[in-house]
Structure of NOP2 methyltransferase:
Amino acid sequence: MGRKLDPSRKEKRGPGRKARKQRGAEVELARFLPPEPEAGRKKLSSHGRKRAAKRRLRASGGPPGKRRPGVEGREPGGGLGPSCGFSFFLRSKNGDGNSKWLAPAKAKKTLSKGNNTELSSDGEVEEVSWEMEEDGSSDEMVDDYGASSSEEEEALLPIEKAALKQKSDRGHLSEDDFEDDEEEEEVTEDAEEEAGRQKKGKEEESPDLQLNLDVEEQFKLPTNEQIEKEDILFPPDLHVIHQRIKGNMEVLQDFGVKREEGHTRQEYLALLRRDMAAYYSYSDFLLTKLMDIFPLPELINFLEANEVPRPVTIRTNTLKTRRRDLAQAALINRGVNLDPLGKWSKTGLVIYDSSVPIGATPEYLAGHYMLQGASSLLPVMALAPQENERILDMCCAPGGKTSYIAQLMKNTGMIVANDSNAERLRSVVGNLHRLGVTNAVVSNCDGRQFPKVLGGFDRVLLDAPCSGTGVISKDPAVKTNKDEKDILRCAHLQKELILSAIDSVNAASETGGYIVYCTCSVMVEENEWVVDYALKKRNVRLVATGLDFGKEGFTRFKDRRFHPSLRSTRRFYPHTHNMDGFFIAKFKKFSNAVPQVQKDEEPAVEAAAPSTVLDTVGEPQLKKKKVEGSKIDKEQKPLQPALKKRRSLQAQRRPSKA
């Protein structure tokens, strides 16, 4: 439809406004164009040429190109040159009486190149006429300033002649190009001048700006009014709070130099605690506890790590498969991107991303692997179970550690998986069946009373219930719903459980006699204080956990002093090991006897216990029960002879009735 456009036969258009003319056109148009001025002179724009033409018309009084009679006859001594028509016009019009005030001023010694003034023979400055003379007798070209090219070429210096020659070699440009070049030169000159002014202004203002920056960088504590205004704002400006936290941290790290006079360190710490509580959404109680545990730079890293979820990890079930077969033959072929967990684990895998749900693959349903956190593998590795041993997992739900123990034991020996919550035991039974564990016995008992049920185990694993301050990334509600009572309640329960776990172990075991205590908390009250309490209450000692990494436990915390052997315990943090916060301690029981605490030592032991309030509350209740029991026994003892007499009398009466 219609004629098709052939791009190869595109018609060429004429040159643009700034395009160079062809050399042939210059030769043909030379007779129509006015004579070009000399290359050394400054070129006039079209507007300037129009103004010059008007001046020539006014000076000549007739059509352009004709000279007024009598102008050439003037002598140089009269102050008028051969090309001073405009000046002569002014003098003739105004008369000789105005010659004094119309005379131009004295010329300076140095005149700019291309200036339109000339010095006369008597030293006066004469204005150059804008008129162009046309003399038929002479063939010389006259420029806009009225001077011939031959005279100027003679007056030029050699260096100026070389410059003119260089310009002429560049080629001939049209008038429009000259105008555009002139305008561009003016624009560039103006731009250079403006840049120079701005540079000078910046140089002048630079000291003041530097001073202002120094003043702004210096951190200042906000006033109470500013804090009240921020409290009114909802939601708060997190960017401002974050910048204030950074500035406050810098001051606290070099407090002696950067601190503001009249303010103490406690004021800076109070502001930092308030800002971090608002920025990270923590309760003031929990943030105060964390500030006591971590140094300030490490505390920021810990809080930031809790905002990011930990990587998904799985544990290979070696009862059914090998790690290499599981990774290469199964998961990678299903579109799972994974890597080995680390050199410290032979069964762990870390999952980066997956095109299929990890908890619903055929391999998972067949029991080839278990979804388990990296930190949950560490207590079992520290326990180091051996084949054909009797092992107790006192708090086993949901069964990840229990199945790992069975895996290391190769389904030999016996494992008692106990938990006080019957509902959670359902997941334990399901996981044990799926993973193919056959040497486990599931029980539902209170761990505190377990020694009365069964004892004599070679090893005991106690993953005690805790406040969960190490798994905030999984449960952000811990940030605000924990207080002092919750920590003390957990610590009291943990002390009871650890004593029960120690009592369940047989110290005379040939291969065992070990207890591993672990929590998913970073609180000292739930970790070091409980371990120190167990060291004083039972005949146990701390041994190395066998883990090559992890930070040492505290031997002193604030005004507390713990046993030096607590250095063998291990702490794991999310910001340093990229796993959930965890605490692990390993005991070795060397005697089944329970040490008797003397009356003089009881106050000291109670002072060393973290939950003194709960202990004092629990001990009187036990004493009351014992006292009541003793009273009942005393009452029953005198009643026993009376009952015997009655029974003997009844026995004697029966045969008499018969």
Observations:
- Residues 612-657 form the longest helix (46 residues).
- The chain is about 45% helix and 10% strand.
